[in-house]
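ARCHIVE CARD
Drawer: 12
Card no.: 0347
Subject: one protein chain, sequence and derived structure
Cross-reference: see card 0346
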Amino acid sequence: MAPRGPASPAARDRWPVLAALCSLLRICELKASDDLRPNILLIMADDLGIGDLGCYGNSTLRTPNIDRLAEEGVRLTQHLAAAPLCTPSRAAFLTGRHAFRSGMEASDGYRALQWNGGSGGLPENETTFARILQQQGYATGLIGKWHQGVSCQSRGDHCHHPLRHGFDYFYGMPFTLVNDCHPGRPPEVDAGLRARLWRHTQWLAVGLLTLAAGKAWGLLAVSRGAVLGAAGLLVLFFGCWYASFGYVRHWNCLLMRNHDVVEQPMVLERTTRLLLKEVVSYVERNKHRPFLLFVSLLHAHLPLVTTEEFLGKSRHGLYGDNVEEMDWFVEQDANRPHRRSTHQPIGSRILRAVEENGLRNRTFTYFTSDHGGHLEARDEEMGQLGGWNGIYRGGKGMGGWEGGIRVPGIFRWPGVVPAGRKIHEPTSLMDVFPTVVQLGGGEMPQDRVIDGRSLVPLLQGAAEHSAHEFLFHYCGKYLHAARWHDRDSGRLWKVHYVTPRFHPQGAGACHGQGVCPCSGDGVTQHSPPLLFDLSRDPSEARPLGPDSEPLFHAVVARVGEAVAEHRATRTPVPSQLTLSHIVWKPWLQPCCGTFPFCSCSEDGGPSEG
């Protein structure tokens, strides 16, 4: 289908009135015509707990701008990530499909991409909502975090890059923030492996010195060649260790504009300002045509880089400071100055840019997080550095527990989506794919399984219930839990087949591990499965049994039938998270300059793209 041109100003000015009439009469679907297609603004936080926002019950963190967004639109209270970890959750969000369908879930070991220089990533044959809207004539931009891979076989092939997945503009991190990006924080990427490699390097050094001393003193009959070979092995071993692990900040913490690395390593203190300028610039240069802009925030992921004016201002340490800065990033009121600023604000914030360009009523806005807060994120000196998941049990990485997958879901479209509504139906991040495709006038792919369902009828009020009767919750490639919304009784059942072993009190740590495992000794298999009634026990505090719930066997059997039907839709695909894909490959490493002497600095201003 040939791209369509931008709507005329007159036609777009008529849109708010027409949209309001449609919403009032409920006689037209929100599948926009050529001239009435909305701009689409998707904002995704990173590692944000659902309990960290005022509109979801927090009374100690200040998030007035996100709360206002919820007041002016619809707030979903059972919005669920398809996975409790970054890479698979975002793959599912972009494609509307469970991550295992694209190979973006792991069977064991690593569950997320670890290196810019790895070869794993979102396969080219996957279809993102950006690709479909691009075909409909939309400008499509991604600003912020990607974390879906970069290259496959050579440094420049960029087979997993955003520009190969329907985005025509990209500025941000091809990877994700990690502690290693901050020189003063403890290592995060493969910290355990790095410690073991360092010990091996020390043992090799001791062995080499022993051989050399024995040779020098005539105590050992060691040839000179053997000593030189051992020395060479030590140099090679140390070189590999240093290149991949000792230089993590250089290899992973960088910024790209389209296909070019523009800052390596990142200067964290100014990254927020650079991203904000890019957002404002993108809105301004595309305001006369329909656009899709995915703002993938770096807040509130470790190492919680926060500008000076927000440090020490919250009641919850560095994490709270970072969340309140994130809310400022989203700020929309052009007439209300930021209360903490001691200097001129850094340009306009995201929603303010939309409003100042006259796009408020023509923009469909969505705010969410990729999964729940990270309970294991702690520091001996700074204390808890992860989010709060409210009343919900568990957190980031923890399979099917609500705290790891229940996320904010806020939608605003003035005059079309009714303001001030709360919807308690089960929905998924995967639902954004068919919703955006419908709003943009595209067609859903017919050659693959799509797990998401359009939210348009639910948001508009034309449907009473979610299109999901069942939802399935994975940890890696393993099905940990499933939920059933029994519409006849109104009860919401949750069945857990596997749960991670973690300590609910305190940090919720999984036996000292950074993220809970999905299988092996770190999980508990349940036979019969655990059953909860989320409509009465949303905290999953009281498992039900045959003695306490007369419907126990009937519910478990019905959910089991749905699981069997769901598993029948699975087909084998190559895994993108195997060790061969995850391992750092120097020939794939993004670099500005001559590898390995990669170094460049962003000039601080956005470019035209």
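Annotation on reverse: The first strand starts at residue 39 and ends at 45. Residues 191-248 form one domain.
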